[in-house]
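$ ./design --mode recover --in tokens.txt
reading tokens...
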């Protein structure tokens, strides 16, 4: 693919300052530049995905410096999948934001483009230190997006969000330092070669670095006990920002998948499958905590945020099995939960705007405009999120349950997933009943606020809900791609050979 691999990073990085310099007082032009940039990134991402299907991993060496000495970007099936998902979600979020949300503060579209730069960079980088760099880019942009529109509640949640992620960034640097001190490299492919060769006397430092990295990624993925920042942050953020943030937790999940299959996978010697004993119990507790939060939440925004926490637990349960079958199921659930979560945040924003002073509180109130349409969208998105048939959430959970049959923790996995699915169903049913059914008896809609966010926002939410249906209808075709992606993850020889050359690959 040549230089095309770097386009999803460079294009948003160039467009963002152009938006700041030339569109300060022209929101329409800012929207246009942002849309065009995001559309081009999506087209390029699809082309990269096609290239990833048809060949071995491809490497882009910045400055023509070879690995492991230079910075490299690596395109394989997993990174292509994540870039496509990010680009598609970004374009839909922009459609939603263009209904007026982006005009509530300054520099929304510039921050949005910097966020895309950080996300795409994190998915494409082949170096742990540059993973840290792109983490910081996307986090700095997310700080601004989270505070967009102002407000005391948003400022309070934003302060907590910044504090937790600064702690995570500090721990990330400590982890990077420890791993580099032991191995002398931070290139992921080179680490895969060097980690099995670490002397026994240095293994404690290596394990400490691996543990710190896992903690950092757990913070990003909102894994218990470092999940507390997510609910307040996502519930307080504007609807389009919260919808975009549905992909943010997946950066943590992606990093766990990438590092703990490639670097600390089956060939890592004493550090083989380092994350497995820690990840499984934390993921099970995360799922339970998230779904209990769903049934106890008093606002729709917090309920959706807790469902995101629970979905991360489900996703990481599958990841922690570290088998090809379970990883394929995890990746399908990753796609599903991102689309369903983003759709619910969009629907929440539309409902809150139309209910006036009641906002997104889960209480009965008067009937509001577009309630019939929004109730239908909410119903479908809720079915997908909790995992009821026939939508993608049901298929994803079924795949995860099936992949866990040979696990020693199969009883716990089945019991927690099935029980929390019931709890989530009760929570979403309670919310839907109070928001829609109990308002039907009142015809007093004349005093309800006239919504300022109309057809574009409704269309964007509808597209994402349709996306859950598409994931169901094309599950077989998607599954073929994901099975091959999982197989590639558990046989990293092609990745290592692409980055370092064939001579670096030993018999695996």
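writing sequence...
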């Amino acid at each position: 693919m040549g230089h095309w691999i770097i386009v999803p990073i460079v294009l948003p990085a160039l467009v963002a300052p152009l938006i700041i310099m030339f569109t300060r007082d022209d929101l329409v032009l800012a929207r246009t530049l942002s849309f065009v940039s995001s559309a081009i990134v999506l087209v390029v991402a699809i082309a990269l995905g096609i290239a990833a299907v048809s060949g071995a991993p491809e490497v882009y060496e910045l400055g023509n410096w070879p690995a492991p000495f230079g910075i490299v970007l690596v395109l394989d099936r997993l990174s292509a999948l994540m870039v496509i998902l990010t680009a598609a979600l970004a374009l839909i979020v922009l459609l939603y934001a263009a209904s007026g949300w982006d005009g509530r503060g300054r520099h929304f579209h510039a921050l949005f483009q910097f966020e895309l730069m950080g996300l795409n960079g994190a998915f494409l980088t082949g170096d742990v230190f540059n993973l840290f760099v792109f983490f910081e880019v996307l986090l700095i942009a997310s700080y601004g997006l989270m505070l967009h529109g102002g407000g005391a509640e948003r400022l309070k949640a934003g302060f907590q969000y910044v504090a937790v992620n600064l702690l995570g960034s500090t721990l990330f640097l400590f982890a990077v330092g420890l791993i580099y001190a032991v191995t002398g490299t931070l290139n992921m492919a080179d680490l895969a070669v060097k980690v099995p060769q670490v002397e026994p006397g240095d293994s404690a430092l290596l394990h400490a670095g691996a543990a710190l990295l896992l903690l950092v990624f757990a913070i990003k993925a909102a894994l218990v006990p470092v999940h507390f920042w997510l609910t307040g942050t996502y519930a307080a953020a504007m609807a389009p920002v919260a919808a975009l943030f549905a992909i943010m937790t997946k950066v943590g999940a992606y990093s766990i998948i990438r590092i703990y299959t490639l670097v600390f996978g089956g060939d890592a010697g004493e550090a083989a499958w380092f994350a497995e004993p820690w990840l499984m119990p934390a993921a099970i507790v995360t799922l339970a905590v998230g779904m209990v939060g769903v049934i106890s939440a008093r606002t729709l925004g917090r309920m959706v945020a807790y469902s995101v926490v629970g979905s991360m637990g489900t996703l990481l349960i599958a990841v922690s099995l570290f088998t090809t079958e379970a990883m394929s199921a995890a990746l399908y659930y990753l796609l599903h939960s991102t689309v369903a979560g983003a759709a619910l945040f969009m629907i929440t924003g539309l409902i809150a705007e139309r209910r006036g002073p009641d906002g997104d509180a889960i209480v009965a109130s008067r009937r509001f405009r577009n309630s019939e349409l929004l109730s239908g969208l909410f119903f479908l998105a809720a079915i997908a999120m909790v995992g009821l048939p026939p939508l993608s959430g049901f298929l994803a959970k079924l795949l995860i349950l099936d992949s866990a049959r040979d696990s020693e923790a199969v009883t716990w996995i089945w019991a927690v997933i099935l029980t929390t699915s019931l709890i989530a169903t009760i929570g979403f049913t309670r919310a839907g009943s109070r928001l829609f059914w109990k308002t039907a008896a009142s015809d007093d809609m004349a005093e309800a606020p006239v919504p300022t966010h109309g057809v574009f926002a409704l269309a964007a939410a509808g597209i994402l809900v349709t996306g859950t249906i598409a994931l169901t209808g094309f599950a077989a075709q998607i599954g073929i791609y994901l099975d091959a992606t999982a197989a590639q993850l558990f046989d990293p020889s092609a990745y290592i050979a692409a980055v370092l050359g064939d001579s670096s690959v030993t018999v695996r």
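exit 0
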